[in-house]
Design goal:
heterodimer; A: about 140 residues; VC0802-like; Alpha-Beta Plaits; 2 domains; six-stranded antiparallel sheet; about 35% strand; B: about 425 residues; Rossmann fold
């Protein structure tokens, strides 16, 4: 049901992000989905990778402040209004979206979007009720 | 354990008599041997005969750090160099080193007061004391060393630096007491965890930490991380080094070795003595030193002499934990700020590491304060919102306790430099 996401706290300093991706590359960690939330002082990088536990360990060893969180990988119809429908549906069920971002790759004709919500169990039910498919960890890693 | 019951539990009247005798002898000594003191006393219209008891101490002139600097290196010595068997010095952050000299009797006194200190901290002749204070001109290392030997304990003269080796020695040698600065103790705790060492293999029980201020919150943090009992110790090289005052197992104030170092609390503005219980500047007169006795030395430390007796049985008066030296103190927009206030606040909020840096700048005509705080492992989050809430929490606390607004900057773990000696807590970029 849930997919593991890795989040890294980085100061907004020259070269920090480049160094992070270098560390991942060097350790054969592949990025499947990626987003960065930025403020003037710092940024939080969120990513889905092929091996979350390894990524966390190598980042930690290289002086990066990383943690893991669980998010939902949602299959959204890749048409105009696809995302809008999903968001309205969540809104009606009184579920808040903390953030979302899309996958680097797609799965056929569907767009893949990662959601972090405030009420995960209810969100899972809501998606099931509306026949919106969630990708499993296995499927995500196989992309 | 009380090392010297005769002196540490001396009845008040006997102590006063002893202090009076010792003060009279010291005043005579400096008047006869130190031109600077003779001039100071003559300027105040005083001769040694005017000092008849300890109560007459208020008549005597003060000594400041400037006097030591002006008379660098040996101008205030009251013994000939042939009698001086040791020199020590403190790291002068502003210009010249502060140099002190010890006669054989002074070294003996120092060993005695440090033996009292370590015993009060939990050591006895069966202890193994790991000294991670720096050895050299700095009084920390040698002070702890001589005290441990005098006590009959086993000393490990590790000095500072090479943290992995320190931990290996502590584990292999089975030290039960650690002597170092509080910031280094925190660093050792971190390193122990990082190196994946097993705490159960260490025999550490006690820590005697000094040389820099340590808030109550920080002490509890170190006790929790290292699983030891920590006692705060106090001193300065001008007076002898560490050994001037020490906490006992009750951790409710530091017992002053006032048979050697007579304390007063004065109002730093009026220079008049304040009654017991009021906060002011700590002033000490050394009443047994021979090499460089100091009369009414202004320490610039702010504290209170506590009323009442301690359950430990010592009759030596206690001072409250020092908030900070006025040197640590920074003045921002007219407000006195001690780094320890920020430290306490951060530890109370508990969501960051106690590693911080106060960065002071002047923008135009206005002083600004930026508090850099290290993120702790368990605060790393995926939501910006949570970090903003944390910053806001810290900011609000600073505003309510200090009365002005500071910027909070969250920095990555392990980016604020660690120290092996005294931690640098302030980066003042203003050119004052």
């Amino acid at each position: 049901m849930f997919v593991k996401q890795i989040s890294v706290f980085m100061e907004n300093k020259k070269g920090r992000l480049a160094r992070l991706t270098e560390v991942l590359a060097h350790n054969e960690i592949n990025l499947i989905a990626l987003s960065i939330a930025d403020t003037a002082e710092y940024g939080i990088m969120r990513a889905i990778v092929n091996d979350t536990d390894k990524a966390k360990a190598v980042l930690h060893d290289n002086g990066f402040a990383a943690t893991t969180t669980e998010v939902l990988a949602v299959e959204v119809p890749d048409t105009t209004g696809g995302l809008s429908d999903v968001l309205c549906m969540l809104n009606e069920a009184d579920i808040s979206v903390e953030y979302l971002y899309s996958f680097v790759r797609t799965a056929g004709i569907k767009a893949l979007i990662l959601f972090k919500v405030n009420k995960s169990a209810e969100a899972v039910e809501c998606f099931a009720k509306h026949n919106i498919r969630l990708l499993s960890k296995k499927e995500v890693n196989a992309l | 354990m009380i090392y010297d019951e005769k002196h540490e539990c001396m009845p008040k009247e006997d102590l006063k008599k002893l202090q009076s005798e010792r003060l009279i002898a010291t005043v005579k000594r400096v008047y006869e041997n130190v031109p600077v003191y003779r001039e100071k006393m003559q300027a105040a219209g005083l001769t040694p005969e005017d000092i008849k008891s300890i109560d007459d101490i208020v008549k005597l002139p003060f000594t400041t750090k400037q006097d030591l600097r002006d008379n660098y290196p040996y101008g205030l010595f009251a013994a000939p160099m042939s009698d001086i068997i040791r020199l020590q010095a403190s790291s002068g952050t502003t210009g010249k080193l502060t140099v002190v000299g010890y006669t054989a009797k002074d070294i003996d006194t120092w060993s005695e007061v440090m033996a009292r200190t370590l015993a009060a901290g939990g050591a006895d002749r069966n202890s193994i004391v790991h000294v991670a204070y720096g050895y050299g001109l700095f009084t920390g290392g040698l002070g702890a060393h001589y005290g441990a030997e005098r006590l009959g304990a086993t000393v490990v003269p590790a000095s500072s630096g090479n943290t992995p080796r320190q931990l290996m020695l502590m584990q292999d040698f089975g030290a039960d007491m650690l002597a170092c600065t509080p910031s280094y103790a925190l660093y050792l705790a971190e390193a122990m965890q990082e190196l994946g060492m097993d705490r159960s293999k260490f025999k550490l029980k006690y820590g005697v930490f000094g040389a820099e201020p340590c808030s109550e919150a920080m002490r509890k943090e170190i006790e929790k991380k290292l699983q030891i009992r920590v006692t705060d110790i106090y001193g300065m090289c001008e007076l002898i080094g560490p050994g001037v005052a020490t906490e006992c197992e009750y951790q409710t104030g530091l017992h002053i070795n006032e048979d050697h170092f007579y304390p007063e609390i004065i109002d730093p503005e009026t220079l008049l003595p304040l009654p017991e219980g009021e906060q002011g500047e700590l002033v000490f007169t050394t009443i047994t030193k021979e090499g460089i006795p100091l009369i009414r030395y202004r320490t610039r430390d702010l504290t209170t002499i506590l009323n009442g007796t301690c359950p430990c049985g010592r009759t030596l008066r206690r001072i409250k934990k020092i908030l900070g030296r006025s040197d640590d103190m920074i003045i921002i927009r007219g407000v006195n700020v001690f780094p320890s206030q920020i430290e306490t606040l951060l530890l109370e909020i508990g969501e960051t590491e106690p590693h911080y840096l106060l960065v002071v700048n002047r923008e135009g005509a206005l002083d600004t304060l930026e508090v850099w705080v290290e993120m702790s492992e368990n605060m790393i989050t995926d939501e910006v919102k949570k970090l903003e809430e944390l910053e806001h929490k810290i900011k609000t606390q600073i505003a309510s306790r200090l009365g002005f607004s500071a910027k909070v900057k969250l920095v990555e773990p392990k980016t604020i430099p660690r120290s092996e000696g005294k931690a640098k807590r302030v980066q003042d970029n203003r050119k004052l």
